[in-house]
Amino acid sequence: MSDEALPDGLTALRAHLHLSEVMRLIERTSRWVDPETFRLMPIWYPEHARGSYFYKKNWSEPQMNKNRQTGHSEHKREGNVYANKALTNALGLRSDDRPNWSCCHIWGVDDAQYQESNAVVQDRRFFSGIANMVLLPTPLKAFTDAMPEVKAMLRICARNLYGWHCDHESVADAIATINAWGECAAYLKSWPRAQGASLPLGVMKLDDRVRRSAARRLEQIRSDLAKAGPHYPRDGVRAALAYWKIETDRAMPSAENASPP
Hints:
two-stranded parallel sheet, 10 helices, alpha+beta, disordered C terminus
């Protein structure tokens, strides 16, 4: 066995794959929610956040998972299920339409060692917010998780596309980084350099299917606030809706009456 220490994995990768090549892959394959969809329904599942508990029977009973080896039952927690559902619906897709695609959160706690809890996606305001997500082929998600330059460029693109960036206190340094970001040769020409300047490739346009999904989701939130069981997180849901300025008593245009985007 060689005594020579391995270099940092990113250093080894960069010796053979230029950042601009990584970005071209992301440019050609990423799928973005239409800004019109974001304005219609910016958050889809305010009742869920990373690590929150699942309940059944209309939020009346805990949903348990049983460990097959130990036989011990534990209260089931959210991983990324409802973030995936939000992004899938906002893109106008079905879950079966996206094999080997992954939901990538754009804003989160930057921790290469995965030692810190991710307070951003544990926050109901940001977990299923569609301006905080992009759909990528699963292998490319590793680049967004591990390469700071890729994260920064995704955040700049999303801010210019949706006119929003995460304002959670844990990402203050990341906001300062993108505010100070100068010209970067790897930043894609097709991505907007100012708010509303252009649309990246892969934007999935708002259509009647998405409008219907959004209307159903808003109606379900309205119903759950009034009728769901005792474990429904009403205060958290109301706070998330208030952050995004969503009024549950507002009427959403139906697909039949809506104007085309």
